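Extended Data, record Glycerol-3-phosphate dehydrogenase [NAD(+)]
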Amino acid sequence: MAAAAATTTFLPPIPTPRPRLAAAVRRPPPIFTGAADAVPMPDDEDSSDDDDGDAAAPRRSARKDRRRAVRIAWEKLVRWSRFWRRRNRSDVLESTRKLVVLGGGSFGTAMAAHVAAKKADLEVSMLVRDDFVCRSINHSHINCKYLPEHRLPENIVATTSAADALAGADFCFHAVPVQFSSSFLESISTHVDPKLPFISLSKGLELNTLRTMSKIIPRALGNRRQPFIVLSGPSFAVELMNKLPTAMVVASKDKKLASSVQQLLASPNLRISTSSDVTGVEIAGALKNVLAIAAGIVEGMNLGNNCMAALVAQGCSEIRWLATKMGAKPITLSGLSGSGDIMLTCFVNLSRNRNVGLRLGSGEKLDQIMSSMNQVAEGVSTAGAVIALAQKYNVKMPVLTAVARIIDNELTPKKAVMELMNLPQVEEV
C-alpha cells in the first residue's frame, strides 16, 4: 500500500458481494467517486411507520435516502478494496524461503509464529540465548518462558548459533531490547549478509547515545547501507498469537522494501500500512513507553479519570513537540504508531510499562519492581534519554521529565503530581 496510507485505521470486514454487482467489480473505480458512479439500489419498503398520510411521507423518504447513501458508500468501499488487492498482489511470500528472528521474547515469538503460519514450508529460525527455551521450542513447540500457553507452528526452529540462524535468511526480525542491541549485533555481524533486510521490532532509545534502532543497527553491523524497516503499532504479543484483529505500520526510506514487508506480513487478522517516516514511527514508539509509566502512576495513585485523560493528552503533545522538531511528520503521530500505540500502552493492563508505573504509584520501589519482571520495560531506560533529547532540541516536556525524575528517585509520585499541577497556566499549544 502507498505511503499515504500510513495512518489508515481498521477497515470494516469485506462482505460477500451481491451477484448483480459482478460487472462493476470487474471495473473497480477509485473509492471516492460521485453518487452517479455508484450502482443504483432499489429503495427498501419501510414498514416501521404506520401509514399516517402525507405527514409521514417526508420522514420515510429521508430514511430511504439515508439508507441508500450508506449502501452506496459500502459498495464503493468493497470495490476499492478489491481493486487494491489485485494491484498489490505479490510473490514476496512465495519467494521467501527463510526468516530469522533475533531474540526469543514474547513479541519476537509472536511475529515468528504469525509468519510461519502463513506458509508451511517456510523456515523460521529463532536465535535465542537460553538453552532451555531453545529445547522447549524445538521439542514441544512452545516458548516455555514467555508464551507457555500457545503452541508454535512446527516450521519454527530455535538455535543458539548465529551462523546457523542467519545462513540463507531472506528477512531478519530484530527483537532484542534496545539497550543490549549494539553489543549483540556486533557479536554476530560477521554472519550477517550486507543485503539482508532488518525489520526492527525494538522500541526505545539507546541511553548513552540517544540513537534509535535505525541508527544502532547499521552502525553495529558496520554497514550504513544495511536495509532497514521499523514495524510498530498497537499490538500485544498474546493477541497476535490468538489471531485477534490487529493493525500495524512498517516504515522505511525504501518504499519498495516497505511494500515487500507489508505483503510479507499482511494477513486476514493483521493489517499492515506503510510509511516513509522512519523518525516519526521510531520516536513515537520510544516515547509512548515513558508516557505509559506516567499513566500507570496515575492509576496506582487513584487520581481518577479526569487526571488520566489530561495527563495522556499532555504527554501526546510533548511527544509531538519533540518528534516534529526531529523531523517527524505530524500525521504519523496521529496514526497507528503514534496515538494508536499510545492508547494501547497507556490504558491496557497487558502493558509492561504501564504496570511499572502502576506499582510505582502504589508505593513500590523501582528496584523491587524490576527484579520481579522477566521481561524488559523499555520506558524505564528510555526516560533519561528522552530528557536528554528534549534538552538537545530545546523542547519542554514536563510530564516525561517528571517520569525520569521519579525513576531516578529524585521525586516521589505524589510530589511530581503537585509540581505538575502548580505549573503556570498557559495557552494550549
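Summary. Residues 1-49 have pLDDT under 50 and may be disordered.
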